[in-house]
Structure formats: C-alpha cells, structure tokens
Amino acid sequence: MRITDEHIELYARLTGDRNPIHHDEAFARGTRFGGRIAQGGVVTGILDALVANELPGSVLVRQSLSYLAPVRPGDTITGSIEIVALREDKPIARLGVHVTREDGTRVVEGEATVLVERPASAHA
Asked: What does pLDDT average to in each consecutive run of 10 residues of the chain (124 residues)?
C-alpha cells in the first residue's frame, strides 16, 4: 500500500489527529524525522485489514506494537501477520505482526490477539 497525503488527511478528519508532524512540512523538517510522517494508525491500519481479510469475522482484542521507523507520504508499506499460537479452550489466536517499508526497513512489529469468530452456520 502506498501512503498518500490523502490517507493522512482522511485519518486526521476521522480521528482529529492534527499533529503538525503529519501536516506541516516546515514544522516536521525541524524534528528528528526531517520531514512529515504518517500517523501510526495509518501505518498499522494495514494490519487491521490483514486480520479482517485473512481471518474473516475475527476481532482484535489486544495489540502490543513497537514503532521502529517513520513512514512518509509516498512510501509503500507491506503488512504481515502470522499465527504463532492457538488456544485450545477458546477461539483465540495470538499473531505476530509487522509492517515493512519498500526499502526493507521494518517500521512496526509486535503481537496481536484476536477472537476468531465464525457464524453459527459455519460450525454445522
């Protein structure tokens, strides 16, 4: 997924996150990042989409994420999820998750726990 200015603006409109590090190039150039960066939620949204698409009906119940490097407008990112554990007593899975920029830099890594929901008709 290529991160665009539109993603950053839509996320700001949705959440109210108007931090100038995301919106004001002059401000952002004066920070350690040297320019504007995307909101963390824009970057990790790709993980939500993967869970929704790869494990339909599942819902996140817990996340622990580390943000390792910035993502800028124009960067292309790829998300990855991997089931690392399944509970035998409940429909719960623990996932390893990460997001990588096109240059190979891992920008987010962590774990997520999901409740794996299936419609009643899927059990029959």
From this structure: 97 97 97 97 96 91 97 98 94 96 98 87 55
Structure token digits, residue 76: 């292309």
Other Cβ atoms within 10 Å of 49 Cβ, number: 12
Beta bridge partners of 60: 114
DSSP secondary structure of the chain: -B--HHHHHHHHHHH----HHHH-HHHHHTSTTSS----HHHHHHHHHHHHHHHSTT-EEEEEEEEE-S---TT-BEEEEEEEEEE-SSSSEEEEEEEEEETTS-EEEEEEEEEE----HHHH-
Q: Which fold has domain 39-123?
A: Thiol Ester Dehydrase; Chain A (3.10.129)
Tell me, what's the pLDDT at 117?
Answer: 82
